Amino acid sequence: MKVTKQDKELMEKAAELIKKRRLKGRIDTASALITNKGNIYLGVDIVCKSEPCSICAEYSSVVSMLTHGEQKIKTIVAVADDGAILPPCGKCRELIFDVSGGDSDIIVNKNEKFRLRDLEKYYWRG
Ligand SMILES: [Zn+2]
Asked: Out of 52, 58, 65, 106, which residue is the most buried by the measure of CB atoms under 10 Å away?
């Protein structure tokens, strides 16, 4: 699917956030999501010396959404400090699917997004 004006605004919010919060080698990515209620939540990644303690930016934005009592992600994006759009890793896809189901749209580059269920056709549904 093509990205919409609203998707571009989401990309801009993540890009603005990583410009403000970037710590080279520690915080390199920001995520923005919009819920089905129209609220936007943001998050950044953190790279820790102990790798299992590190988390992706998408994790942060999803947890922020959950903290505010929402569970349905309409669209989510992650933007690196160089402006690149980063598709979510397997762990984040699993988190998004688990929390919000397969109807969330994932922005994978500046022009395209996919419904999560189409990216994860063989989701294990455990
Ligand atoms: Zn991830």
From this structure: 58
Residues 77-100: pLDDT tens digits? 999 999 999 999 999 999 999 999
Long-range contact pairs involving 113-117 (C-beta distance under 8 Å, separation at least 24):
113/1, 113/2, 113/3, 113/7, 113/75, 114/1, 115/1
Is the confidence at residue 31, as pLDDT, over 70? yes
**What separation in Å is there between the alpha carbon of 2 and the centre of ligand 1?**
23
How far apart are the C-alpha atoms of 20 and 96, rounded to whole Å?
A: 25
- Is residue 126 one of the residues assigned to a domain? no
Distance (Å) from CA 59 to ligand 1 centroid: 7
- State the pTM of this model: 0.94
Q: What residues make up the domain containing 75?
A: 5-119
What is the domain count for the chain? 1
Terminal CA-to-CA distance of the chain, rounded, Å?
Answer: 28
Cα of 91 from ligand 1 centre, angstroms: 5
